[in-house]
Amino acid sequence: MASIHTGHRQRAKEEFLARGLSGLADHRVLELLLFYAVPQGDVNPLAHALVDRFGSLSGVLSAPYEELLKVKGVGPNTATLLRLILPVAARHMEQSSEVGGEYNSTWMFRELLIPLFLGARSEMAYLVCLDGKNKLLACRQLGEGIVDTVSITARKVMEAALSCNAARAVLAHNHVSGIAMYSAADVNVTREVSRLLRQVDIELMDHFVVAGDDMVSMRESGVFQSF
Asked: Is 190:218 a contact under the CB 8 Å cutoff?
């Protein structure tokens, strides 16, 4: 006698292809992913266990590799697949931002930058390059490091800005602490980067600090008045 799960995987895939993820609960989205890490069997209980452990789909995809392995039924292949999703999404956002319109507001930069830091567990820095009319030229990753020690070097900033023939630029980095507040060290780095870019006639327009879905602008906070 056929199992009640016979054909379930194929039906789930067909439903996604026809309707996307709209209306699907978190555990059902996880099921779709788990199909490709667990070749056979019912992965519904594992999907539920993951959501129960980490609270949501976002929590599962942001969970550390070692913590994922602690869930019964999760092996190295499954943990690797789940950890891969957010970095792939961030890479997509970075590449799709290579050409864009004019960026004239903090809101527009927020829409561009927030997705780049999805699921990041270490600090990362980006340089957004623009032309003289604030048209987006490119968004370049400058560095990545352990918590609170991301390195933004003069060489990387200059190479990124000059390679795009930028007239203006914007710095952005994240705080994995969850607090979107710049530090004294952040201000010092911003002052130095601004000085270096001015030497080659490039204006540093702002420096954004991102934490989760929150973002603060140094320019709007008055920091740039001291430069």
From this structure: yes
Q: List the Cα angle 202/207/211 in 5-degree steps.
A: 155
Residue 114's closest CA among 204, 214, 219, 218? 214
Instruction: Write out the two tokens for 172.
Output: 């952005």
Q: 62-70 — which CB contacts under 8 Å span 24+ positions?
A: 62/86, 62/119, 62/121, 64/121
Tokens (6 digits) for 64: 């550390």
Query: pTM (2 decimals)?
Result: 0.62
For the chain, the C-alpha Rg in angstroms (whole number) is 21
Reading the block at residue 116, the tokens are: 């780049």
Q: What is the pLDDT of residue 101?
A: 63
Does pLDDT of 4 surpass 70? no
Q: Could you tell me what percent of the chain has a pLDDT over 70?
A: 90
Scan for tokens 């930058």, then name that residue: 113
